[in-house]
Amino acid sequence: LVLRVIGVVRSGRANRADTPVQAALNRAEEAVLEVDPLYAEALDGLSGFDFAWLISWLGERGAPGPTPALRQVPFLLRREPREIGVFATRGPRRVNPLGLSLVQVVEVDGNRVRFAGVDLVDGTPIVDIKPYVSRFDRPDRDVRCGWLDGVEVPDGATPSSLDAAGPDSRPG
Amino acid sequence: LVLRVIGVVRSGRANRADTPVQAALNRAEEAVLEVDPLYAEALDGLSGFDFAWLISWLGERGAPGPTPALRQVPFLLRREPREIGVFATRGPRRVNPLGLSLVQVVEVDGNRVRFAGVDLVDGTPIVDIKPYVSRFDRPDRDVRCGWLDGVEVPDGATPSSLDAAGPDSRPG
User: Fold this and answer.
1) Predicted ipTM of the assembly
2) Which residues in chain B have their CB less than 8 angstroms from residue A84's CB?
3) Handedness of CA B77, B78, B80, B84 (dihedral sign)
């Protein structure tokens, strides 16, 4: 299965360690998705939606590398630490390095989508954009969210801030 | 960018025309995701989540085919009809044929995930599973949903039911 790159994110974030781990934890920051002009027409109608999903590619370009560890310690569990299967985490080192970011659509101008909610580093390739549809994308009730229900999820949390918060890095 | 198939859906739906267009419109029906045993370990922890995202591959296997039309009439607008850019629709004929389905996790047993909410035909390849996390995946307010705000979205709607409802198919 071969994917095309449909656009590239232009954000103020240069490396993943200092980039918030989820768009929802960094709602105010803005960035731009530059869609390949070849596909600009496909944005028609997107500005009517307040939110959209960006499906991103978080790995190297080209053929798949080696499979990552199937159980990993999520950034948010670095304090414990506790391993979780990667299909039960939102971490970037996955069997297929796809990211799913819920962003606020601020403005669509030609092939440029300005959005708020940044968890992607500058240059991240995007492979799909889908409108957020409440009827489709929201469970009809409050739901259990597994290991995340027991974890503090601080606004703006980045891999390095979560690492620094861990017991190992405390002085003494 | 090359994707691995991580599993295959086993559902009671044989063709897309008679399959509901969104999992949310078919919440009661169940199906099974058979994960490649190679990756079964990655499911560890998923059963603690009530809902999960399935990222599916809705196209042919192999190299990308020709780019589909960038503006299309969504199934739900067949009555009008009205064309919308594919990045503002959830339709399957996209630049990259990726699907995003929100399903209820019913049971995880070894490499099998039983789920409720079926919009995928039998044999659909899955390329990623992500847990649904309310904090990450829910806008913090009611949001505009573009052209979908003005459209009736009947439970169980399939491409053929929506076609049959169109003016062109009425007798006379």
Assistant:
1) 0.92
2) 44-45
3) positive
